[in-house]
């Protein structure tokens, strides 16, 4: 959202409060504000508990709470059973209860490293709330040009999405990623140490590899549905012919390749992310119009969305 790399900003870790370090930085939505745009957003745009009220004219759920509540594990007081309960997502970062639904907790495990089908509909989930708020903004009349940002949390862990998305990927049809016993032989010592950080051994010992892949596919499918919901609303709106759409994602994910899980690696399936740009017909010059619908093989980064 600043268009600047960590070596420029000095922000290298998630807990750093970025606005404290960059009090005068003009973010992407602020840039649009200064150009006369109304700016609105919903969901996971900035990280965790670091909303930036000055970037927005309006935000869902609010300018000070940028994540909706999500279904997360909790203990039912009456039965003592672990159940899903809608709650503040911030507790997942350092949950003293250490609750999971599927993956057995192990020493050093990120507590959100978990997957399970939700016994709720898509319309009852937090990411749906964010996407629906964006749909509502597309359905109303705007007196100014607008900038809208929709942050869909999934497929980031924990991969809790409605059961119908899990059902689309039957367990007996799940294919494991390629993983070879000698897969780390060509990796430097630091990479081998990182890869052997307990995750792969614990996932396989718990018999959860297939279910973890299923959870990831389900979470991607859920995010695809919500993205389509927003794009369908745009297509039916009064702004279909004059709105630029940029879709990009967070990091990729390793699912056992080179005995590694999650991110924190330089494999292509981690560092390659989604970046798609759609412009209304006729907005660009003739040469650019010819490129519509094609794929660029140039190396780019997400910072290129907002070069500063």
Task: Please name the defining characteristics of this protein.
single chain; 308 residues; three-stranded parallel sheet; two-stranded antiparallel ribbon; 10 helices; globular
How much of the residues is beta strand, in percent?
A: 15-25%
Question: Rg, please?
Answer: 21 Å
- Number of domains in the coordinates? 1
The geometry reads as globular
Q: Kindly report the oligomeric state of this protein.
A: single chain
Give the end-to-end Cα distance, rounded to a whole number of Å.
10 Å
Report the order of strands and helices. Answer: HHHEEEEEHEEHHHHEEEHEH
Q: Report the major sheet.
A: 3 strands, parallel
Helix percent band: 25-40%
Helix count? 10
At CATH level 3, the topology is Alkaline Phosphatase, subunit A
Low-pLDDT runs: none
Annotated CATH architecture: 3-Layer(aba) Sandwich
CATH hierarchy class name:
Alpha Beta
Strand order of the largest sheet: 2-1-6
The computed structural class is: alpha/beta
Number of strands: 11
């Amino acid at each position: 959202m600043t268009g600047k790399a960590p070596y420029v900003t000095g922000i290298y870790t998630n807990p750093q409060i970025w606005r404290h370090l960059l009090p005068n930085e003009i973010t992407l939505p602020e840039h649009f504000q200064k150009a006369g745009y109304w700016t609105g957003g919903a969901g996971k745009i900035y990280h965790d508990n670091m909303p930036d009220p000055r970037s927005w004219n309006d935000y869902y759920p609010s300018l000070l709470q940028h994540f909706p509540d999500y279904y997360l594990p909790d203990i039912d007081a009456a039965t003592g059973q672990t159940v899903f309960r809608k709650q503040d997502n911030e507790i997942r970062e350092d949950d003293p209860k250490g609750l999971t639904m599927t993956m057995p907790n192990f020493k050093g495990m990120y507590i959100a490293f978990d997957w399970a089908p939700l016994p709720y509909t898509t319309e009852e989930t937090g990411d749906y709330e964010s996407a629906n708020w964006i749909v509502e903004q597309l359905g109303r009349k705007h007196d100014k040009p607008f900038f809208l940002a929709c942050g869909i949390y999934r497929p980031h862990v924990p991969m809790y999405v409605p059961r119908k998305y899990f059902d689309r990927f039957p367990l007996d049809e799940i294919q494991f990623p390629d993983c070879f016993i000698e897969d780390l032989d060509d990796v430097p010592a630091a990479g081998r140490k990182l890869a052997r950080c307990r995750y792969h051994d614990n996932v396989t010992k718990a018999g959860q590899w297939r279910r973890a892949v299923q959870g990831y596919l389900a979470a991607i499918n859920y995010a695809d549905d919500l993205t389509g919901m927003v794009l369908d609303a745009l297509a039916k709106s009064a702004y279909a012919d004059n709105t630029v759409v940029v879709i990009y994602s967070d990091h990729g994910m390793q699912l056992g390749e080179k005995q590694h899980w999650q991110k924190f690696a330089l494999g292509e399936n981690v560092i390659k992310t989604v970046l798609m740009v759609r412009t209304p017909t006729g907005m660009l010059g003739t040469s650019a119009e010819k490129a519509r619908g094609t794929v660029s093989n140039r190396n780019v980064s997400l910072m290129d969305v907002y070069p500063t």
